[in-house]
Amino acid sequence: MRIVRLANFITERSGGLRTALRELGIGYQRAGHEAVLVHPGARYGEVETEQGLVITLPGPEVPRMGGYRVLLDRARVADTLRGLRPDHLEVSDRSTLRWVGRWARECGVPSMMVSHESLDGLLRIFGGGRSRWVADRLNARSAASFDRIVATTGWAAAEFERVGVRDVVRVPLGVDLEVFSPGRHDPALRQRWAGPGDVLLVHCGRLSAEKRPQLSIQTLAALRAKGVPAVMVVAGGGPLRSVLQAEAASLGLPVRFLGHLRDRDELADLLATADVAVAPGPIETFGLGALEALASGTPAVVNSASALPEVIGDAGLAAGDGRGMARAVQALLERPLRREVARARAEQFPWSASVEGFLDAMRSGGPSATAATGGAAVRA
User: Fold this and answer.
1) Same domain, yes or no, for 271 and 127?
2) Which of 32, 65, 207, 301 has the most CB atoms lying inside 10 A of its own CB?
């Protein structure tokens, strides 16, 4: 089966979505399928990778979004899809690529949209007071256009179920349990970032408005105000980096900003060496960074408004503001088996299970998938 995947809003410095696309593509290839990923870039390109063929189509940058690009040339995208002759279409964008579902249905190609982000949440942050009404309308249209909607958590599925979509397929994402491991704990690395007796916190995530990274700074400030000798390392870049650096400096907080870590081994070493990870995003639909921390044996404090409490289970705690997160950090540090519990939770999310779940969703078909002559029209 040739699985063609479309995605927007990924860059060389992307985190969770880029990781998910890579791991799913690798899994599809290993399962004997042909995976093709189409995403925007500065210019056209094709490259064979371990996740299959990756095609870059020119797409403009979104202003003030830290380098994210989108595929806006519908005619070129449609021509590319016709040339690829997909057996199945997987779309990872809830907004600008929603039209692809209608194209697929007209061409008899089975399709599914993957809910990697909360449209309701994004509109709530960026779209003003009518976000719920707009999100509901767009989600209902998406469900009508695609044969399948796949959500990574019950939290992500809820905004579709709210508008009457009852057959949302739930497939959790996964984590590389070999790369992210407690065995990567590095005492020398710890000495670089923290002194004897310090509590080492790590924020791993993009520094942009929807991620609420300022909550991590507030968490550190609240801990220091209580006399807890906490320090923080921030692994991630984004448009708010300079603002956050200025805020931390003005408060006299010991925060090191490392930027985006492209080396997964470097990130894995950091996560395994930290005492607690902080994942403050309020609209995360899954939270790969937090799961990678758990796999590294590091418990996580997450935002109670997001899907992360569902993901981390008893391997962490949730709160809604900086002071609450500071209390959660202290509570986790008092748990004697916190690292073992964190690793055990992560082991429930291997990428192999995610790949099989996505393939099962494709095999389950839909209106266009059951059309006997549908795909032939595209491949002729």
Assistant:
1) no
2) 301
Query: How many angstroms separate the CA atoms of 141 and 136, rounded?
Result: 9
Res. 273 pLDDT band, cuts 50 70 90? very high
Which structural domain, as residue segments, surrounds residue 314? 182-346
Q: Is 54 exposed, middle or buried (0-12, 13-18, 19+ CB in 10 A)?
A: buried
Task: Name 85's Cβ contacts closer than 8 Å, sequence gap at least 6.
Answer: 2, 378, 379
pLDDT at 368 > cutoff 80: no
Nearest to 234 by CA among 176, 193, 198, 199: 193
Nearest to 80 by CA among 98, 61, 55, 102: 55
Provide the CATH number for the domain around residue 360: 3.40.50.2000
Tell me whether residue 371 is exposed, middle or buried, using C-beta atoms within 10 angstroms of its C-beta: 0 to 12, 13 to 18, 19 or more. middle
265 and 301 in a common domain:
yes
Is pTM beyond 0.70? Reply is: yes
Q: pLDDT (tens digit, 9 = 90+) per residue, 175-191?
A: 999 999 999 999 999 99
- How many structural domains are present in the chain? 2
Low-confidence winner among 152-156, 180-184, 198-202, 370-374 (lowest mean pLDDT): 370-374
